[in-house]
Design brief:
Distance between the termini: 13 Å
CATH topology: Endonuclease I-creI
Number of helices: 5
CATH superfamily: Homing endonucleases
Shape: globular
Number of domains: 1
Helix content: 40-55%
Length: 135
């Protein structure tokens, strides 16, 4: 995350209103795996581009609406396990209880680096502080 503390607080507020944490079960021939995703949706491209600039990863997609009177909208999202973890760790202190519980569930399952064991609570706290620029 490259944003300031104020940016991260703004991002957490936007995520509370327009964001989503999703998980999908994926099965391959070798194993089953859960795919976590975070996204933020909005009609104003400049807001979604600001998310991208604060976070420094993920991508933006445009969705066209065909219904009369409906505006096109934009989605910032990331599915890379390390990025989902870093994003949630950064905004976690500023989330309300419902989203905090979902973020905790995701972070407990997501080792920040592929192939490593899940982080300890102390490692999670350090990552959160580092992501917010406090370390």
């Amino acid at each position: 995350m490259v944003g300031s503390r104020e940016d991260v607080i703004w991002l957490a507020g936007l995520f509370e209103g327009e964001g989503c944490i999703t998980v999908t079960d994926q099965k391959t021939s070798e194993r089953a795996r859960r795919r976590w995703e975070v996204n933020i949706t909005g009609c104003d491209r400049d807001v979604i581009e600001r998310v991208q600039s604060i976070v420094g990863f993920g991508f933006i997609r445009k969705r066209k609406r065909t219904e009369p009177g409906w505006r096109d909208y934009y989605i910032w999202q990331t599915t890379r396990r390390e990025h989902v973890y870093v994003f949630l760790a950064a905004i976690y202190p500023f989330l309300m209880s419902r989203r905090k519980a979902r973020a905790r569930e995701a972070m407990a399952e997501l080792p920040p680096v592929r192939g490593r064991l899940p982080w300890t609570d102390a490692q999670k706290e350090r990552a959160s502080l580092r992501a917010r620029g406090l370390l």
